[in-house]
Write a structure and sequence with these properties.
The chain has about 325 residues and is mostly helical. About 75% of the residues lie in helices and about 0% in strands. It has helices at about 1-5, 10-25, 50-70, 75-95, 100-120, 125-145, 150-170, 170-190, 200-220, 230-235, 235-250, 265-270, 275-295, 300-330; strands spanning about 35, 45-50. Strands 1-2 form a two-stranded antiparallel ribbon.
């Protein structure tokens, strides 16, 4: 009976996320907060931005079954609690526009508390680096939530890879929680794929980014995978956001201000469109996730080779998008 309850966790997460997200799409809902287009936006029509409420509600209901089945753990509970805290702050920001300083303070606090519970191995510098990484994951996921179906798709593919790897490693509780995250994202994605009826908003993007890092660390501490695994799984988001931020900083731009220079934003602007950009991103996400899972049981040399090939693929794609963007700016025809 307990095993059946646990296996129902992803199913229930999908159903609840789907129903709550659908309710948030209705103009009469008290969660109908409109996202007004700005200089960062790729959309032109005001659209509700509370889809993250559906994702988090579905995840929590599905996750509760994992605990009812007796498969929960303190690190998993701490990760979900941290995500809930970030979701509440994100929802308040979506409604009232909190200051960047207050949001960052909460993110740092949540990351610190989670690491205190997890107790990762390593010295003070490594723990500090992990804390910075958790905060960065939450923010980069937020940066990448700007095109129809993109952030929801990354959650679906990324956490599905987590779930598969955790199941293969015998970490049933971790696998089911990750599966619940992926299923909840799928329930939201029904309404977010182009043309999007609703966006995720800070209530979903920041918690999902945090969970990508937190559950990645939980898997490392439990022996399910090494640290490179979550980095490779979420490489499409990590590399796009990190490279874009670095380039903007080197140009002396204000990196905290809204912009439209991410690779996925450039694809949409040069005419690829939301739908094709999402589908191309899904293919890249699937390749990254599958490569990470395949590499796990292999030897060190083969793992290095697979990681190198995946990074090289991202660099080649980035170069081609940059070239197409330059042609677009000069008015030259795109081949």
């Amino acid at each position: 009976m307990r095993e059946l309850l646990a296996l129902l966790a992803p199913v229930l997460a999908f159903v609840v996320a789907w129903r709550v997200t659908r309710a948030c799409c209705r103009p009469g809902s008290w969660l109908y907060f409109l996202d007004q287009p700005n200089e960062r936006s790729l959309h032109v029509t005001p659209t509700p931005r509370t889809g993250g409420v559906g994702v988090m509600t579905g995840l929590l209901v599905g996750g509760a079954l994992v605990w009812v089945a007796g498969l929960g753990s303190l690190p998993l509970g701490a990760a979900l609690a941290g995500a809930v805290g970030l979701a509440l702050v994100g929802l308040a920001d979506d409604r009232f526009s909190l200051s960047a300083r207050s949001r960052l303070f909460v993110q740092v606090l949540v990351a610190g508390l989670y690491l205190a519970v997890l107790g990762p191995a390593g010295g003070g510098f490594e723990v500090l680096a992990l804390g910075v990484g958790l905060v960065w994951m939450g923010n980069l996921y937020n940066f990448m939530d700007g095109s129809d179906g993109l952030a929801g798709g990354m959650a679906l593919f990324g956490f599905s890879a987590y779930a598969l790897a955790a199941a293969l490693g015998g970490q049933e509780g971790l696998a089911l929680v990750c599966g619940a995250v992926a299923a909840a994202a799928a329930g939201f994605l029904v309404f977010n794929f182009h043309p999007a009826r609703i966006f995720m908003g800070d209530a979903g993007s920041v918690p999902l980014g945090f969970l990508a890092g937190a559950l990645g660390l939980a898997g490392r501490e439990s022996g399910a995978w090494p640290l490179w695994f979550p980095l490779l799984v979420f490489a499409p988001f990590i590399l796009d956001a990190s490279v874009t931020l670095l380039r903007r900083a080197l140009r002396g731009e204000r990196v905290w201000e809204a912009h439209r220079t991410h690779y996925y934003q450039r694809l949409v602007q040069i005419g690829v469109g939301h739908r094709r950009t999402a589908l191309l991103a899904y293919a890249l996400m699937a390749v990254a996730g599958a490569a990470a899972v395949v590499a796990l049981p292999l030897g060190f040399s083969l793992q290095c080779g697979i990681i190198t090939m995946c990074v090289s693929l991202h660099l080649v794609l980035g170069y081609r998008i940059d070239s197409a963007w330059r042609r677009h700016q000069t008015g030259a025809p795109t081949p």
